[in-house]
Amino acid sequence: MRPAASRALCLLTLLLGTAAPAGAAEHLRIVSLAPSLTEIAYAAGAGAALVGTVEYSDYPAAARRLPRVGDGWRVDVEQVLALRPDVVLAWSSGTPQATIEQLQSVGLRVVPVPTFRLADVPAALRLVGRLAGTESVAELAATRFEADIGRLRERHAGASELTAFIQIDDQPLYTVGGRHVLSEVVELCGGRNVFDDLAQVAPQVEVEAVLARDPQVILSTDDTVADPAAQWRGWPQLAAVRAGAVYALPSDLVARATPRLVEGVAATCAAFDDARRRLERRSAAP
């Protein structure tokens, strides 16, 4: 294949979110233990190598057809073994260490993939690309992500800081600590996670703790809550509620460290921009 045609095929592969039809990926067998890692594998051109994944792996559409070996926290080791993987991709912030050790004890190669920071996304793409021999596709995806995030970071540099509460579940109430990628997303948009001092990635908190920290913005990624503004209306003493700065964000776009996080960052920054306008109007009102 001529070099120009090869580059065109790689680009088409990236845009479609599927794997290149030739290369090392078709000789490798990968099991992914997180929806985000499944998505990363497809974006890196390694979709043809995937032979199994976990529940909630629903993007791209091809991922829905893969055999399931459990979910993000409970994995059936026998089912994994039955798929004869060469590599098992583990979720550094979610796959239990006991599960990783159990898989390793039966002779499987487990590769933990960090997903704590925005920079982890291109790093994961390049890692999977090296494993699968699809470096060219992975590099295109990685550099595009870096460029898109860079533009968003530049656009919101210098924005006035707003404090934010990030709600990822409502019953019980869960948020994210400073190590979670969502906390960095909020920082990029000119915000500060009011629970960024907590060491846990996804700690449970009480409503009283939210009231005490009085965020100016509330971001809900809990897709089971149809109207987060209505949910928080019972606490009018919160600055975010008084300003009407309560927003629903699609969890798949903001909670998964994948190339689609670019869309999640854009949506988060748009919410902060709207919150600033609302707060400015309130402060200007007589």
Number of helices: 12
Q: What is the general shape?
A: elongated
> What structural class do the secondary elements suggest?
alpha/beta
Q: Measured on Cα atoms, how large is the radius of gyration?
A: 20 Å
CATH superfamily of the largest domain, by name, is Nitrogenase molybdenum iron protein domain
Strand content is 5-15%
Mean pLDDT: 90
Number of strands: 8
CATH topology of the largest domain: Rossmann fold
Q: Describe the largest sheet.
A: 4 strands, parallel
Provide the low-confidence segments as ranges.
1-23
The helical percent reads 40-55%
SSE pattern, N- to C-terminal: HEHEHEHEHHEHEHEHHEHH
Q: How many structural domains does the protein architecture include?
A: 2
Instruction: Quickly name the level 1 CATH class of the largest domain.
Output: Alpha Beta
Considering the chains and any ligands shown, give keywords for the structure.
four-stranded parallel β-sheet; Rossmann fold; alpha/beta; 12 helices; 286 residues
Structure description:
- This protein has twelve helices and eight strands.
- The chain is of the alpha/beta class.
- The strands form two sheets. A four-stranded parallel beta sheet has the order 2-1-3-4, sandwiched between helices. Strands 6-5-7-8 form a four-stranded parallel beta sheet.
- α1 crosses α6 (135-155) and α6 packs parallel to α12.
- Mean pLDDT is 90; it is low at 1-23.
